[in-house]
Q: What sequence folds into this?
């Protein structure tokens, strides 16, 4: 059954690269073209991979798994461009951006969800879905623009870590309360303590150990093909795995921490070249296309269209107001704060992960899940062009 997958991978990569090239020629981020390619190939338009030839080989599931690896490598690449001193300089703006970027969507989700007919628990969960932020798309766009290490970019990355911890922590608490499994205070405190312990421990261990291990492997001239890059890939995968299993936060957070820790290695440039080649030649384009493949606009009724529109507007405004307002309160000027707010708009795979938790817990029905998927897609699609408008053009990207 490998032949259908080979054909699907070839089609996906070709569509991603051509769409990225076309988007770049039109003066838009290459990310936008790749996302639209997924929307066209997916059930909303062509539904190409639902053909029997592909469906019997479970191609969609395979592409999704490849895409998950892509976002992990993407966030490690973003981490490699960051130094801890840069993130600590973001300080207060990053903290306030992360906190208000979670509080505002939850509040607006409840205010809008209840009038739309959702029960209180469902409305709170809708707010939690909108609180989730995935900066992988923003990180890719900022790397394209050469702006990842400017103050807004560092605030954005620092806020993303705090946003992830707070949003996933609140989700864990909420699901524990709804299911009746975590009502006591010690259990709730342990959820947050576990996350903070993992984040701090992972960085301290990684920053102390990883550069030394890389130096040792490189100096030994082991009879292994590409020993350093092989080691780095293993480290990234282990950090991503431990992030969810041990720390209870998204796998992309662990990958980002691994990247930040490896940024101190003397072999940083070699590591960057190796990871960049693997990620951007294969895995990242599949990740971007796979987002569009998960949306099916055809299942929506006329009434659902209005619901999707409201959710999308609230999702965008809540991050602009919450995250942007937090950045402004943290000391950034209004233009810079607006850029940070725009960068926090994309929900990406984190929003989909949270939504799937709601489906499994009975808090989202099929139409609600489709609405959330389309919200994730819309927020992901609008973020690259909005960031391009918010930032002065500096560098062009490769497709």
A:
């Amino acid at each position: 059954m490998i032949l259908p997958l080979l054909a699907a991978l070839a089609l996906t990569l070709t569509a991603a690269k051509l769409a990225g090239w076309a988007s770049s020629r039109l003066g838009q981020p290459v990310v936008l073209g790749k996302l639209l390619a997924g929307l066209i190939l997916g059930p909303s338009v062509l539904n190409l991979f639902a053909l029997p030839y592909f469906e019997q080989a479970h191609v969609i599931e395979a592409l999704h798994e490849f895409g998950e690896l892509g976002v992990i490598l993407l966030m490690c690449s973003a981490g490699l461009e960051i130094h801890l001193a840069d993130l600590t300089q973001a300080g207060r703006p990053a903290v306030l951006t992360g906190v208000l970027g979670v509080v505002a969507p939850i509040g607006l989700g409840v205010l809008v969800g209840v009038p739309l007919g959702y029960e209180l628990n469902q409305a709170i969960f809708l707010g939690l879905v909108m609180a989730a932020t995935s900066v992988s798309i923003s990180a890719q766009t900022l790397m394209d623009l050469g702006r990842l290490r400017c103050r807004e970019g560092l605030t954005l990355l620092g806020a993303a870590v705090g946003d992830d911890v707070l949003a996933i922590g609140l989700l864990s608490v909420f699901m524990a309360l709804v299911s009746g499994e975590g009502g006591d205070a010690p259990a709730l405190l342990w959820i947050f303590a576990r996350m903070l312990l993992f984040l701090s421990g992972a960085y301290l261990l990684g920053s102390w150990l990883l550069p030394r291990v890389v130096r040792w492997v490189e100096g030994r001239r082991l009879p292994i093909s590409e020993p350093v890059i092989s080691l780095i890939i293993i480290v990234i995968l282990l950090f991503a795995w431990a992030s969810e299993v041990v720390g209870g936060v998204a796998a992309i957070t662990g990958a980002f921490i691994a990247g930040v820790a490896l940024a101190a290695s003397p072999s940083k440039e070699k590591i960057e070249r190796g990871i960049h080649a693997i990620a951007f030649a294969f895995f990242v384009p599949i990740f971007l296309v796979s987002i569009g493949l998960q949306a099916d606009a055809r299942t929506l009724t006329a009434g659902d269209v209005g619901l999707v529109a409201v959710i999308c507007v609230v999702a965008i405004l809540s991050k602009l107001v919450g995250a942007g307002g937090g950045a402004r309160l943290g000391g950034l000027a209004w233009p810079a704060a607006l850029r940070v707010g725009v960068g926090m708009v994309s929900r990406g795979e984190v929003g989909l992960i949270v939504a799937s938790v709601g489906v499994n817990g009975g808090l989202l029905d099929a139409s609600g899940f489709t609405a959330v998927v389309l919200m994730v897609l819309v927020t992901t699609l609008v973020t690259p062009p909005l960031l391009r408008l918010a930032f002065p053009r500096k560098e062009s990207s490769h497709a």
DSSP finds 16 helices and no strands in the chain. The two ends are 30 Å apart (CA to CA).
